[in-house]
Design a protein that fits this description.
Blueprint lengths: L11 H11 L6 H12 L9 H17 L4 E6 L2 E6 L4 H10 L7 H13 L2 E2 H8 L4 H9 L3 E6 L7 E5 L1 H6 L11 H35 L3 H6 L8 H21 L1
Antiparallel strand pairs: 1-2, 3-5, 4-5
Helix pairs in contact: 1-3, 5-7
Length: about 260
């Protein structure tokens, strides 16, 4: 499809570039088509198709690569949005660290993980898994729009059900929930980490045993042998001589 299939307005590629640049959340292909239909009157002759939009996005990304730009249009959370290229991650990470005030706490991450894998899930279920009250954490996650209320459970009291949002996908760079690490993969990673810890502990114990062994063998054999010999002129030697003399005197008296 030509960039100038519609008259009286900029080329399709530039319009797409403007849309994805200006949006603060990922735009789906359906939304893009609806935007064009809204301004173009929805005529079938000039209607954009999904393949045409994807082809234009591919052309834009190729143009960005060839010109060495630091960004691309990527698919995230079911839509498309501008994002920086991976090689600039270190600099972006430094910028994020400067904003550590808004960093999620460990307890918030733990609760978010429970919700992500168990959703829809109730507050009592989250508290039963974590073993602590979840009121403050849930309020924080709701304020950050990482979770939302998706309904009520069909149990006594009708507790609220919580699930993750599109902002959750955006926050962690996921396209959908299927990209979450599988529990088996997490267990394997934890097992590998535990193995490394145990291996390091064994190495440290072995090193300590070798050091203790080298300290013992460092003592001179002559010193060890000398400890068994008692010099004749030592107090111990004198005592032995006197004892032997007394025994001889007793034997002589008995003979007389």
């Amino acid at each position: 499809m030509s960039d100038h299939s519609f008259t009286g307005r900029p080329a399709v590629r530039q319009i797409l570039e403007a849309l994805f640049f200006a949006t603060d959340e990922p735009l789906t292909i359906r939304q893009v088509i609806d935007i064009f239909d809204l301004l173009e009157g929805g005529g079938e002759s000039g209607k954009l198709t999904t393949d045409q939009i994807l082809a234009q996005l591919d052309d834009l990304n190729e143009e960005y690569r060839q010109s060495g730009r630091a960004f691309l249009i990527v698919k995230v959370a079911g839509g498309y949005q501008f994002a920086t290229r991976p090689e600039y991650g270190a600099w972006l990470g430094a910028m994020v660290r400067e904003r550590s005030r808004r960093k999620l706490s460990v307890s918030a991450l733990e609760s978010l993980a429970v919700i992500a894998y168990k959703q829809p899930v109730t507050k009592p279920e989250i508290e039963a898994i974590r073993g602590v009250n979840a009121d403050y954490v849930l309020r924080t996650l709701l304020e950050r729009n990482l979770i939302t209320i998706v309904g009520r459970a069909a149990t006594p009291g009708r507790p609220l059900l919580y699930g993750t949002t599109r902002d959750f996908l955006k926050h962690f760079g996921l396209n959908d929930l299927s990209e979450l690490p599988k529990p088996r993969e997490i267990n394997e990673l934890m097992a590998e980490a535990q193995f490394e810890v145990e291996k390091r502990m064994l190495q440290e114990l072995e090193q300590k045993r070798e050091e203790d062994s080298s300290d013992i063998t460092a003592i001179s054999p002559e010193y060890l042998g000398a400890a068994d010999e008692i010099p004749p002129d030592s107090p111990a030697g004198e005592g032995e001589g006197q004892s032997a003399q007394q025994d001889g005197t007793k034997d002589l008296q008995s003979e007389q």
